[in-house]
Amino acid sequence: MIEHDDIGLVATIARTGGPVRAAAALGTHVATIYRRLHRLEDRLGLGLFEKLDGRYLPTPFAEELIAAADAMQSTLDELARKAAGHDGRLTGTLCVTTTDTVLPMLSQAIAPFIANHPELRIDIAIGNAMADMTRRAADIAVRPTSTPPETLIGRRIGAITFAVFAAPGGAEGWIGFDDSLSAVPAAVWLEERAGQALRLRVNSLWAAAQAAAAGLGRAVLPTYLARGLPIAPVEGPIDALGSDLWLLYHPDLKRTPRVRYFVRDVAPRLAKLLAG
Asked: Which of 220, 226, 229, 223 is nearest to 201 (CA)?
């Protein structure tokens, strides 16, 4: 009475909020979604959704179907990771996620690796949030963190130190961070230290470094990010902001050749660049 496509249909309607958006997500006509839903409800002899303020809210039985859909997707994701682990060729695509501040170092570190493996394509995704590695949103994460997720394994690249930097003759005020970075330790430290003396707010450490280089004020930055810029440390290092750079991946990819060789070749070069 219940087929795989039925479970996926219910999960999509619940996730998107209704048949109209579900049709867009599935790439089909909304009439088809209504027809499939009504046929399923007729077969089951019960309703699966309640309408409230234009949204379709799943009934308790529909919630069970959605849980089944999530369980099936998790199984498929695990199989995909394991299949990748059996791929013995350095071909295809390797997706690496990192931050904008780490990208310059990472680009230098992976250049020889790319040259040595011309059939392997590297996709780099920039973002501050940790990618969902369990769903293969990325194969490898290169990120500053003091507490890497317990679900991932990898290698500690090295220590990250922070200090206050400014351009010679630059403004005396502070360069702070907007609300999108309010939870970042450097932003918390700076808010407590500078308070109302913040002259400028930016939404990335890279932007703070560029603003400091332009003489717009003092910025709290990781030491590696300040290299090559016309700024100098005026205070620090700040022990409370010390962190680490990690190269992380899912355990199921441990034996994947392209992941294994990437870690072996890139991690040592990245460590040298971080140490300066």
From this structure: 220
Both 45 and 174 in a single domain? no
Of 41, 63, 85, the residue at which a domain comes to its end is 85
> What is the overall mean pLDDT for the chain?
88
- Reported as a single tens digit per residue, the pLDDT across 5-37 is 888 899 999 989 999 999 988 888 999 999 999
Which pLDDT tens digit goes with each residue over 158-169? 999 999 999 999
Work out the number of other CB atoms within 10 angstroms of the CB of residue 197.
13
DSSP character at residue 131: P
User: How would you class 54 by CB atoms within 10 Å of its CB: exposed for 0-12, middle for 13-18, buried for 19 or more?
Assistant: exposed
Nearest to 56 by CA among 114, 103, 104, 16: 16
In the chain, DSSP assigns E strands to: 49-52, 55-58, 92-98, 120-126, 140-144, 153-160, 162-166, 174-177, 198-202, 219-222, 232-235, 243-249
Looking at the structure, tell me whether residues 252 and 121 fall in a common domain.
yes
Query: Which residues touch 256 (CB under 8 Å, ≥6 apart)?
Result: 84, 85, 87, 139
What is the C-alpha separation between 45 and 53, in angstroms, rounded?
25
Cα 89 to Cα 119: distance, rounded to the nearest angstrom: 9
Confidence category of residue 198, pLDDT binned at 50, 70, 90: confident
Strand 120-126, strand 92-98: pairing: parallel
Quickly tell me which residue has 């932007």 as its tokens: 207
Tokens, residue 55: 């949204």
Q: Are residues 168 and 233 in the same domain?
A: yes
